[in-house]
Specification:
By secondary structure, the chain is mainly alpha-helical. Helix content is about 50%, strand content about 0%.
C-alpha cells in the first residue's frame, strides 16, 4: 500500500468515473473517462474470445460490453458538447478477423457470444419464399401495351404490315 501511495496510484483508485457524462465539466477529463471505458471494453472483448468460459459468463460479458459501448457513446456526445473532436463519426466495430460485429437492434455480439445457440439463429440467413401475387396485383401491372392494343402506334410494325397486306392483295 505504501508503494501505491508513493507512485500516486492510490489517488487514481479513489477517483471514480461520474455516473452521468453531463456531470463532467472539462474536456480533458471527459476524454480521460472515454479512454478508461475504451480500455475496459478492450479487456472484456479479449476475455469473451474464450469459448470455454461457459454460456452464462459469456452472456454476462457481452452484456457488460454493450453497456460500456452505450456509456462510451454518452461520453462521446459530451465531448462534442464541450468542444472536442467528434468520435462518433467512426462507429464501425470490427472483430479480430476484420468483419463487422453482428448486431440486433443496437445490441452487438462479440467473440464467443456469436456462437451461442440463440444468437446463431438470429443471424442465420433464412430463405424467404416469394409470396404469391393475387390476381388483382397481377392485373395492376398489365396495361394496354401488355395486351397488344398499342401495336398500331409502332413505327416499325406499320410499314411491315402494309407491305404484307399489299402482297396478300396482289396474290
Amino acid at each position: 500500500r505504501w508503494l501505491r501511495v508513493q507512485s500516486g496510484d492510490e489517488e487514481k483508485k479513489s477517483e471514480r468515473r461520474p455516473h452521468l457524462a453531463s456531470l463532467c465539466e472539462t474536456l480533458p477529463e471527459a476524454e480521460k473517462w472515454r479512454r478508461q471505458i475504451l480500455k475496459e471494453i478492450t479487456k472484456k472483448v479479449g476475455e469473451i474470445q474464450n469459448p470455454g468460459l461457459g454460456e452464462f459468463k459469456i452472456r454476462d460479458l457481452n452484456d457488460e460490453i454493450n453497456k460500456l459501448l452505450r456509456e462510451k457513446g454518452h461520453w462521446e456526445r459530451r465531448i462534442i458538447e464541450l468542444g472536442g473532436p467528434n468520435y462518433l463519426k467512426s462507429t464501425n466495430i470490427v472483430d479480430a478477423d476484420g468483419n463487422e460485429v453482428p448486431s440486433s437492434g443496437g445490441y452487438r455480439y462479440f467473440g464467443a457470444a456469436k456462437d451461442l445457440p440463440g444468437v446463431r439463429d438470429l443471424f442465420r440467413k433464412h430463405d424467404v419464399p416469394a409470396s404469391k401475387r393475387s390476381r388483382s396485383q397481377m392485373y395492376k401491372c398489365a396495361d394496354a401495351a401488355y395486351f397488344g392494343y398499342r401495336d398500331d402506334d409502332d413505327a416499325v410494325l406499320v410499314p411491315l404490315e402494309k407491305s404484307a397486306e399489299e402482297a396478300a392483295v396482289a396474290a
